[in-house]
Every structure is written in C-alpha cells, then in structure tokens.
Amino acid sequence: MSIWRVLLAILFPPLAVIGKGCGSVLIVLILTICGWIPGVIAALIILNNPKR
Are 11 and 32 in contact (CB under 8 A)? Predict the structure, then answer.
C-alpha cells in the first residue's frame, strides 16, 4: 500500500479502491455516501488486504 493510495483513500475513498474490483468500489461508495469516515475506513481495510 503506497502513500499515494492512502492519501487518495482519505480524500476520495472510492477512487482509491478502483483497481480492486467493481464490488469494492460500490461498497466504499455507498459507505462514503452514508458518511465520510466509514468510507475511509472501508477503503483502508480493502487496500490493506493482500489477497485482493
């Protein structure tokens, strides 16, 4: 996980996980719409997952 991805996850979470698949982007987008903090947390968790 690079520093640029982390900064992007903090500023605009759905854009940070765009390379992880459509489902991840959709989940993070919905969480970001519900609240910025849940979107950031979800994006950081998805980016930190080495299996994806």
Answer: no
